[in-house]
Amino acid sequence: MGPIIGAAFFTIVPEVIRELAHAAGLLWLAEGRFMLFGVFIILLMVFLPEGVVTRTLQDTLANKLYRSRINIFNSTGSS
Questions:
Q1: Do 33 and 59 lie in a common domain?
Q2: Are residues 76 and 38 in the same domain?
Q3: Domain check: are 66 and 36 in the same one?
Q4: Which of 16, 63, 58 shows the shortest CA–CA distance to 37?
Q5: What is the C-alpha to C-alpha distance for residues 55 and 2, in angstroms, rounded to an integer?
Q6: What is the DSSP string of 29-67?
Q7: Residue 6: predicted pLDDT
Q8: Which range of residues forms the domain containing residue 60?
Q9: pLDDT confidence of 46, banded at 50, 70, 90?
Q10: What is the pLDDT of residues 12-28, one digit of tens each?
Q11: How far, in Å, CA of 29 to CA of 41, rounded?
Q12: In the structure, how many helices (H) and strands (E) does the chain have?
């Protein structure tokens, strides 16, 4: 799932930057959006070397999903 989200991110974000820059009249930003995007990616790698969705976050979300399914199962099974 990560590669699909990453591909969508790398496709959509530069285009959104371009559209917003054109709407704001910032043509230099519309043309240099890939440089801005590159700086953003470098900062992301420096400050979040594990990535945006870390293993800890995955485990936390999986535990919450598991607990919610158990709660739903227990509440429907005991009726």
A1: no
A2: no
A3: no
A4: 16
A5: 12
A6: HHHTHHHHHHHHHHHHHHH-TT-SS-HHHHHHHHHHHHH
A7: 80
A8: 53-79
A9: very high
A10: 988 888 898 889 988 88
A11: 16
A12: 4, 0
In this predicted structure, the answer to whether residue 33 has a pLDDT above a threshold of 90 is no
Q: How far apart are CA 24 and CA 56, in angstroms?
A: 39
- The pLDDT tens digits of the residues spanning 52-72 come to 778 888 889 888 888 877 766
Tokens of 19: 């559209």
**Average pLDDT value for residue range 23-43:** 87
Burial of 14 (0-12, 13-18, 19+ CB in 10 A): middle
Sign of CA dihedral 19, 20, 25, 31: negative
What does residue 17 show for φ and ψ, rounded to 5 degrees?
-60, -45
The span from the CA of 49 to the CA of 41, in Å, is 11
- Indicate whether 3 and 41 sit together in one domain: yes
Answer yes or no: do 27 and 59 share one domain. no
In this structure, the answer to whether residues 58 and 34 fall within a common structural domain is no
